[in-house]
Amino acid sequence: MTKLLKHLSFCIISSLFVIFVACSSVDWKAEYYSTVLPTYDFDTNAPTIIVSDPWDLSSKYYAGQALESFKKRGFNNVYLQGQIEPSFARNVIYVKVSKERLDPSSNYQYTFNATGVCNVINGVPSCSIDTKNGETTQKSTKRIIRDSYRVTFDWYDVYKRVRVLYVAGSAAVESGKYSDLQILTALLNDTVSRMEFRRPVQYIYNGSINSNH
Prior knowledge:
This protein is α+β, with helices and mostly antiparallel strands. The protein contains 3 helices and 11 strands; from the N terminus they run αββαββββββββαβ. The chain has helices at 2-23, 57-73, 180-193; strands at 28-36, 48-51, 78-80, 91-101, 108-112, 115-121, 124-130, 138-143, 146-157, 162-174, 201-207. It has a 7-stranded mixed beta sheet, covered by helices on one side. A 4-stranded antiparallel beta sheet has the order 7-6-5-8, with no helix packed on it. Strand 6 and strand 7 (124-130) form a beta hairpin. It starts with a helix and ends in a 6-residue tail after the last strand.
């Protein structure tokens, strides 16, 4: 009986460890930025339409994902363009997504004859080096190709004819590690869930593919 209890305890602890590791994984560094019109009173119940450039098929596709993200945030009167008459809308939110390849010559990793690694992102090195006798001769270089992803939201009050909120979420991810769909969906979910309606905000956070929920 004692052996059985020990075995069960080990299985439970192992499962919890696996869940913790999976949930706390970090896949990329992301940035959240927003600026807001002071004193504006946001109403999550007001009729709101999410729109995109009709010629931008990528943004048009992800507008649907943005809709779901806003619903998770508590917006219960939000629609895609064409689902309600524009004259009924109090707010219009313009969504745009983009992707571009970062310059591989300014994104790479190199090691030294000492134990240590330097990661250079956009030309800025971040090193962890334990040198031997002060020697830091470069030994090898690995070029890392990264893609930059960005989602933006422009919020307009139709009645007052004023822009009240601008939000941008961005991330740089190693090329080919995940699909565009996975990354942009996670970035959209993160950006909407982090929207700050009271003050301007800007910070870096750990992004994860596990944001796709």
